[in-house]
Amino acid sequence: MIRLFALLILTLMCAGVATATTPAPADKKAEEKKPEDKKPEEQKAEDKRGGAEYAVRWDIAAGGPQTAEEALKLLGQAGGDSDEYNVTYFNVKAPADAPPGAVAILRQRTNKSKVDLMLKYHSRSRVKVGSWKCPLPNPTEAKAALDVSFATDSINRVFSYSCTIEAEKPIEPPAALAASNPCASKMNRTKAGNLKVDFWELPKALKVIEVSRNGDTSKKDREAFRRGIVNKLKRAGVKPLERGMAELGMRCK
Question: Were both Cys, which of 57, 107, 126, 235 would link to 210 (CB 3.0–4.6 Å)?
């Protein structure tokens, strides 16, 4: 009996030592990794890569649907929410560190709630990620995409790299961009499903409708846009334009 009692005491003492030397569970908050250091200026914004934007646009004077509502009805979509914008394009000097051969586009867009200023580069070749810097201060968004526009008998592809800043009132473009010749337009955007339908009132009384949606860069997605959107519009009399919206929006002279 004495031997059994001693064994019990020894067991309890060992358990106490183990409990005392076992480290307490670490605080979960202490285990969380610290946020990474802030990225370079052009990467501070939300960085979206790898997608595509498909678009087709037409001069309503040449035929086809005359309103966003008509276009959506033709495409089997009910009208959605709409918003009005004042849009100004500027002639701009491309910064010295712009991607080689890229065209620089500067656009300011205003609606009832906010103003955004966007600098975009269009390049015929892909630009290495991180090789370009945003010349706008503290951008709220940075994006890389493949812009695919359907013309009458061709498809225009261009790599697009952009960054945007937002504010509550008009934004003065950075002096380094030497922005000049502001050219103003009006645009009404209607969203329905995954489609955006923009009705543009451009300089020289030109009225253009653009239908677009985001997607991936696969041939399957490109052909789906061609069959489901472009071909239906062409059968309804649309004659797709060769020029993009930035080029059309800068034709004040």
Answer: 57
How far is it, in rounded angstroms, from Cα 228 to Cα 78?
A: 16
Report pTM.
0.79
Scored b (16 or more CB within 10 A) or e, 67-81 reads bbbebbebbebeeee
The mean pLDDT values, 10 residues at a time, for the chain of 253 residues are 39 41 39 36 42 97 96 89 94 87 94 94 84 87 93 93 92 90 96 95 96 95 97 97 94 84
State how far the Cα of 82 lies from the Cα of 202, in Å rounded to an integer. Answer: 18
Of the candidates 230, 207, 202, the one whose C-alpha atom is nearest the C-alpha of residue 60 is 207
Going from N- to C-terminal start, the domains of the chain cover: 42-249
Say which residue the tokens 């239906």 belong to.
Answer: 232
